[in-house]
Amino acid sequence: MDDLSKRQKQILQAIIEDYISSAMPVGSRTISKSFALSSATIRNEMSDLEDLGYLEQPHTSAGRIPSEKAYRFYVDNLMKLSTLTAPELNYIRSYYDKRICQTGEVLSDAARVISDLTEYVSVVTPPKVSSVLVTSIQLMPINPSTAMVVLVTDTGMMQSTPIVLPRNVSPDELESMSRLLNKMFAGRSVTEIHPQAQYAVESEIADQKQIFDTICSVLASRLENQKGKVLIQGASKMLAHQEFTDVNKARSFLQLLEENSRISEIVSAESDEISVRIGQETGLGDVSIVTATYSAGGKDLGKIGVIGPTRMQYDKVLSVLDQVGKTLSEIFAENVKTEDDTVEEE
Amino acid sequence: MDDLSKRQKQILQAIIEDYISSAMPVGSRTISKSFALSSATIRNEMSDLEDLGYLEQPHTSAGRIPSEKAYRFYVDNLMKLSTLTAPELNYIRSYYDKRICQTGEVLSDAARVISDLTEYVSVVTPPKVSSVLVTSIQLMPINPSTAMVVLVTDTGMMQSTPIVLPRNVSPDELESMSRLLNKMFAGRSVTEIHPQAQYAVESEIADQKQIFDTICSVLASRLENQKGKVLIQGASKMLAHQEFTDVNKARSFLQLLEENSRISEIVSAESDEISVRIGQETGLGDVSIVTATYSAGGKDLGKIGVIGPTRMQYDKVLSVLDQVGKTLSEIFAENVKTEDDTVEEE
DNA sequence: GTTAGCACTCAACGAGTGCGAGTGCTAACA
DNA sequence: TGTTAGCACTCGCACTCGTTGAGTGCTAAC
Questions:
Q1: Which has the minimum average pLDDT: A31-40, A241-250, A251-260, B154-163?
Q2: What is the structure's pLDDT at A342?
Q3: Which CATH class is domain A86-126+229-345?
């Protein structure tokens, strides 16, 4: 079914690339100029490609536009990865060089960079909880009945949460509980912190059990909450593309973007290092989603991605995501190794 | 200039309210139905109102639409505050009852509530730094050369930042520095933390001065960063309104919303408890901005607001903001008094 | 297999038209 | 003096209809 002749492939590629840049149905004459063939010949080929499901005609006397199948074929077989220009690379590096320390800021910078370079909507998920290890847990007295729990992880990610304790607790007692918590969780996955955990606390000080439970359940729910978080940038860019001239389409797309947890789920769903989902494959209708992974110490941390029209500059997007992903990975790798964070004035 | 007759006021009010709900230029016949007057009489009055600058005509044979001056007059003199319905009040209370502990979540909930109830874009600024007092500053060792600084404030707001120390520092030393930091800053405004501070540290341990400087400058830059932050919800809602059917208008508006720091500035600019800025007054062109203040312990903390078309349901928006503002104030007041944060499962 | 030629299709554009909501003005009325 | 009825006028909007042009499919010839 998929044994296209070499010429068919070339023609298909030419059509797709023309359509991606022009957003107009492409006709046989346009293509014939790049080939030493007449428009009639191209027409015949196009007709065949249409029969095979690679092309579609909006109406009889318009040119052809690529189908989702065509994009799929293009991404898998035809496309060459574009290399980023020097200014683009510099742009990416420039924010890397800042060495901002907070996970949140690194990621929101990444989101901005991606959307700036690609002109599409960017999506960045924070490091996923399941792959993160506890470095330490600290309890800090705030007042007799309230403490702050600070959870530090090996990725430099932090959670700090105030917790109301079931009874007044002295700083010393907190201190000893801190130690206990660290003994229990340091070096382990944060997912091991869950509310119903029947830790071997009883043996130590039975009275503290309830406090432990409170702390764990609060931490767990905080981490749970964290899951649906996602950074989105460049929504306005979307409206610049042809396919969103219809206000209603634009609106429903924006609405979708506001459902952060759904986006997060969809983006995180893919486990491949780098993935392209086109049209129906996304479960979102007429958009494409390209995602890449950033990682540290061999563990995948989170996803960066782009949402755009199916008529997307896949080559460009892929290389931007690849580059930004690598950069992020470097940053996090450094964190993991040395916690070597510095802050520069802006 | 502004001595409108009672009847003129009534007519103006009727026109404004009709236009707010219909978005269509309103004609004399429509209005005459609500008054025991003929359309011709209304026309005469309308003509006068137009001369006075309260009404505008898109073109000769269309009805009239209110000018910005008219909205101003409406808000200042004609409008009655609408009372929220029971379900609306419950909706606001329901999220209050959750008693979520983190400042960030309380605020983003507020933003969501406002935009849900008003159908406009909501804006919430976090408690402004200048009015916040340091409760405590804690240094936590992470590894020999890195520490985590946790800043707790009286509003329950927290900042935690990793800091790379200029040299290795033992936990004990950190501990003593913690104490010193608290001695210096506890109970004072966070704005007193600034990088060039020549604190009376020399006397204590000259060697630690550099570390202090590092910590202060990092904290200061974090807080500085915080300034431009702002939570925005419901951008997609905007596209539902008539005035944004033009994609380009919609896009430039969305672009504006993405410039968080600018929005933050504009929203924070107003010092009044509650304020309505209409059209040109906003400096943003054809939109209106309504803001209210939330506060605790007599101090204004931050702003909540709504951005919408000048044709906005001012009465509804004002009462929603008023209510949400009060609710937020209660939540923060509680924080200030007792740090009484509880976390419930969702 | 390729190409020239030709009839055909159909969206897009623009001019022309009728409609209707709404106005301003005038003259008459209370 | 304020109100009203009547009427001519304006002008956006929706609709129709012919024209245009890009593009197709098909056929016959090379």
A1: B154-163
A2: 32
A3: alpha beta
B288 sits in which H/E element: strand B287-296
Separation between the CA of B87 and the C1’ of D2 (whole angstroms):
47
Locus of tokens 């949402």: A307
pLDDT at res. A225 = 73
Q: Which amino acid is at B151?
A: L
pLDDT tens for each residue of B24-80: 999 999 999 999 899 999 999 999 999 999 999 998 888 999 999 999 999 999 999
Using one digit for the tens of pLDDT, what is the confidence trace for A254-305? 999 999 889 999 999 888 999 999 999 999 888 999 999 999 878 888 999 9
Q: Which of A68, A61, A52 is nearest to A9 (CA)?
A: A52
Whether residue A96 contacts residue A146, with contact meaning beta carbons closer than 8 Å, is answered with no
* CB contact at 8 A, A122 and A235: no
Determine the distance from the C-alpha atom of residue B248 to the mean position of all C-alpha atoms in its chain, rounded to a whole number.
Answer: 26
- B130-226 CATH fold: Enolase-like; domain 1 (3.30.390)
Q: Which residues of A touch B146 (CB under 8 A)?
A: 339-341
Please answer whether residues A192 and A130 qualify as being in contact, where contact means their C-beta atoms are separated by less than 8 angstroms: no
Cβ <8 Å between A162 and B341: yes
Of B180, B343, B225, nearest to A148 by C-alpha is B343
What 8-state DSSP symbol labels residue B188? S
Q: pTM of the entire structure? A: 0.85
Position A79, amino acid: M
Domain with CATH 1.10.10.10 in chain A: 6-78
Chain-chain contact of B233 with A258 (C-beta, under 8 angstroms): yes
Strands (E), chain B: 55-56, 65-66, 121-124, 134-143, 146-153, 158-164, 231-233, 274-278, 287-296, 299-309
CB A169, CB A205: distance < 8 Å: no
Q: How many alpha carbons lie under 13 Å from residue A162 in its C-beta half-sphere? A: 28
Which residues are registered as beta bridge partners of B122? B233, B306
CATH 3.30.450.40 boundaries in chain B: 86-126+229-345
User: For strand D, which residues in window 28-57 of chain B come within 7 Å by CB?
Assistant: 36-38, 40-41, 44
- The Cα A34–Cα A12 span in angstroms is 12
- For B30, counting Cβ atoms within 10 Å of its Cβ (0-12 exposed, 13-18 middle, 19+ buried), the class is middle
* Coil, strand or helix at B69: helix
Is residue B134 within 8 Å of B153, Cβ to Cβ?
A: yes
Fold of B6-78: Arc Repressor Mutant, subunit A (1.10.10)
Does residue A41 reach within 7 angstroms of strand D, measured from its CB? no
How far apart are alpha carbons B36 and A137 in whole angstroms?
75
